[in-house]
Every structure is written in structure tokens, then in C-alpha cells.
Amino acid sequence: MRIRTDHTRASLIALAVLAFASCSKPCADSNCGPGYCSDGTCICPDGYYGNHCQYGGPAGSGQDPIGFRIDSITISNVPQCWSTGTPIDGSSEPDLYVEIRQGSSTWYTGVASNATQASFGPFNWVFHDLTQNCFLKVYDVDGAAPPYQLDLMVNIGFNGQTLMDEPDNAFSTQIQNNFSSDCYPYGNPSWVRVWFELLY
Length: 200
Description:
200 residues, mainly beta, Immunoglobulin-like, 2 domains, four-stranded antiparallel beta sheet
């Protein structure tokens, strides 16, 4: 009977140790695909990229990205006044002017008039240079025709290499410069969200 008691006690201790170890492992819930987890960070094999080694393939296999495409851009909950309380666009909603540039080339411009929400896209052009920086800029535009007066609200820089570390094929930034919290419609912050696709 004593042997059984010691055996049971030893089993309980072993289970407690295992439970504690599994709770304290930072990699317990990590999915690193072809890589492995070390202290909560995915270590990817050669040719793989991303927070979860979800992009790429073995070096020389032709699975490295060859470019990327911006699928769409959504802007939500645009502020209606500056931090001074002055309306952005007089008595109407802001007029949103979106521009995407790479180097000296302008790839896209679009305008949504009198809008606190807007969507742009889908787009068909492809960026083949993964290292050259692109910039997405969002302005409030004033004036009925060019040359517009452009008040910059967002300036996001990115390239193909930085996109490899973005989860869910999207990245976003908050519109927060020069605005007072009581200028946001619905009481929520404003976001610019960019959906993209890596091409192989």
C-alpha cells in the first residue's frame, strides 16, 4: 500500500511540474510554420519570412516574393476638426485625397469628397522592387481644382520587406496628429487600413 501511495504522490508531482512548465513556456501557443519558436519569437529557416514564417520558401526554390500589390485602402472615422476646434473643411465633411508614391513615381491619387469614411481600390499595379520605400499619404484637400491645398493627415512608409512581417496581409495606422479627441465622429479614433498581397 505504501508503494502505491509513493507512486501516486510521484505522479501528482510530475503532473504539477508539467503543468507549470507548459504554462511558463512563451512558445506554447506559437505557430511558426516551418520554423521553431525561441522565447516567444519564431526563428525561420532560410528563405522564410514573417512573424510566423508564413512567407517565402526554401532559398533558390522560387518561393521568395517577387513583388507586392496593394489591394485596397480603407479610411474610417476621419476627424472633423483640428485640435483648435476649427472644422477641417468649413461646414462640410473633409475631402480625402489619397496618394501612393514609390521613389519619384506617383502610382495612384484618389479623392473622396465630404467623407468621414472612404474606400479606394482594388488596384491592378504591382511593385516589383521589394526594397524601395513606398509612401501612402492622406490629405484633406481644399479647392475645387488643382492646384489643391493639401493638409497632410497621414504619411506611411513601407516596402516589400516590411510587409513580410505584417500579419493577415494588412497593416494600419491611426490618424491622430493635430486632432482633438472631441473632433472624432462616434467618439472613436480614425484608422487607415491597407490590404496587400505578396506575389510569388
